Amino acid sequence: MSYPPTPPRDSLRPLTHNDLDAWYELQTRSIPDPYTRDALHDELGLRQARTLGAFEGGRLLGSMLAWLVVDELQIMQVVVAPDARRLGFGRALVEQVVRRARAAGVVTATLEVRAGNVAAIGLYGAMGFEVDGRRPGYYPDGEDAVLMRCDLTTAR
Question: Model-level pTM?
Fold first, then answer.
């Protein structure tokens, strides 16, 4: 499976409190179990939290939330607007946060993804993530989570 080219880097930037309403709105229209607005607000204040938004024409089309914990990057959430999927925004978000983590000396990246999200699992696999386990019934609707891990010390 091939993926589209990465959007221009200048469309990616960290999210701020000024983006909170757009970030929350993106989540509520794009995923089945969005964070609450208060939770997103709190994430913006956490020392370990890393956020990134993909913008086009001022519109937030994708977001990423990750935690940097010692030498591990934990990708907590990647969200892309339904009308912007398969345009490279998710890939750009993951590539950028992984690039920054590598530069900071981080050695491992982990994430959880819905077992039914075949497109995301394929994308992460193409980026060097490998299936590392499964959490049965992890999501509120009972769907399993697939655990994935990427060794950031390799030359990928």
Answer: 0.88
Contact 74, 110 (CB under 8 A): yes
Quote the strand ranges of the chain, DSSP E: 12-13, 49-56, 59-69, 72-80, 108-114, 130-135, 145-151
For residue range 11-45, list pLDDT tens digits in order. Answer: 899 999 999 999 999 999 999 889 999 999 999 99
Task: Report how far residue 147's alpha carbon sits from residue 144's, in angstroms, rounded to the nearest whole number.
Answer: 10
Residue 65 CB partners (closer than 8 Å, separation 6+) = 35, 43, 49, 50, 51, 75, 76, 77
Strand partners, 146: 113, 134
Neighbours of 141 (CB within 10 A): 9
CB atoms within 10 A of CB 72: 15
Identify the residue whose tokens are 């609707």: 141
